[in-house]
Amino acid sequence: MSVLTRVADFVGRWFALLVLAGGIAGLAAPGQAALLAPYISLLLGVIMFGMGLTMRPVDFAIVARHPKAVVLGVLAQYTVMPLLGWGIAHLLNLPPLLVVGMILVGSSPGGTASNVIVYLARGDVALSVAMTSISTLIAPVLTPLLVLALAGSTLPVAAGDLFVSILQVVLVPVLAGLLLRMAARRFVERVLPVLPLVSVLGIVVVVAAVVGANADAVLSSGLLVALAVVLHNSLGLTLGYLLGVVTKLPETARRAVSVEVGMQNSGLAAALATAHFAPLAALPGALFSVWHNISGALVATYWARRPPADVPAESEPTGSGTEGSTGA
After folding, report:
1. Region Disordered: start and end of each range (predicted)?
2. pTM metric for this prediction
């Protein structure tokens, strides 16, 4: 187990570069990588099960203690990012399938890697975990409705099918992981250090499969989609932070809301796009998986050097739920 733990720690530290390597592998061997596409939903389900294992009922206690921050953050997650995805896609005149892909990314819940980024950025980790958990639990309802509202005029959207898919690959695995941790706490806590290995490898394979299935599109329009993804993520991080400023949240909470709004479960977006639309619609999700981990690392490095005003300079960030929470 000690060897696996060291390997898991290594892949967690180099997550962004490993995801980038997965994308390069998809371009280098598109035929082989595309063969993995049918397994994207299964891989995502395994990742979500791992996320559930990192959760505990106590992680939701912050909702009662600080409801304002949690509600504002979740509302921003499901308003700022979907509208940005829709607006940027139309501003850049992307084709319909890529418009749907951008909207799917924006309408997905927060990415699980956000908890680690908030921890490194000296933000409010408990708030980050609560926002990720709640946005994930309500995704089966909100994600299909948002995609239907924003993309329904672009392409036919089967909201009911999206709802069922999110139940299968997100909600059921997350709840199963949460229940297993409650029933077998000691066993689960022994394997928690290894979970980043499973999550990182899963996302690397997802990115490789999506890029491989869209190799021609990546080479022909990848730069434009990459620009859209960078704008989407950067504006999400910025607007999330400004929302905290306007609503007078403490600095640690502003950082958490910024990261939670800007980082998406892009693996889910890619899986849904592949299953319900076409491989091309999964391209924004794949590129977002690469970029938001790079930008998250940069943001964490910047904030780690600047202690928040509401936390003494010598204090370490506190909160629960950071273990094993590297993911999409």
Report:
1. 309-328
2. 0.80
- Residue 277: helix, strand or coil by DSSP? coil
Q: Is the dihedral of CA 207, 47, 328, 7 positive or negative?
A: negative
Contact of 19 with 290, CB cutoff 8 Å: yes
pLDDT of residue 112: 67
What SS3 class is residue 14? Answer: coil
Say how many C-beta atoms besides its own lie within 10 A of residue 223's C-beta: 10
Describe the crossing of helices 40-54 and 266-276 by its angle, rounded to 10 degrees.
150
Q: Which of 37-41, 71-75, 304-308 has the highest mean pLDDT?
A: 71-75
Phi, psi angles (nearest 5°) of residue 312: -55, 145
Q: Measuring CA to CA, how many Å separate 301 from each of 111, 256, 258?
A: 18, 14, 15
Torsion angle in degrees (nearest 10) through CA of 121, 63, 136, 292: -20
CA atoms within 13 A on the CB side of 298: 11
Question: From CA 228, how far away is CA 328, in angstroms rounded?
Answer: 19
Which residues on adjacent β-strands are paired with residue 191? none
pLDDT surpassing 60 at residue 119: yes
The pLDDT mean for the chain works out to 83
User: Which residues on neighbouring strands pair with residue 264, listed in sequence order?
Assistant: 110
Q: Two tokens at 34?
A: 């595309």
Q: Which CATH class is domain 37-303?
A: mainly alpha
The structural domains of the chain, with segments of one domain joined by +, span 37-303
CA atoms of 326 and 149, how far apart (whole Å): 31
Alpha helix (H) residue ranges in 248-322: 251-262, 266-276, 283-304
Q: What is the mean pLDDT of residues 265-279?
A: 85
Q: What is the DSSP string of 206-240?
A: HHHHHHHHTHHHHHHHHHHHHHHHHHHHHHHHHHH
Tell me what pLDDT residue 321 has.
44
Indicate the SS3 state at residue 268: helix
* DSSP class per residue in 71-132: HHHHHHHTTHHHHHHHHHHHHTT--HHHHHHHHHHHTS-B-THHHHHHHHTT--HHHHHHHH
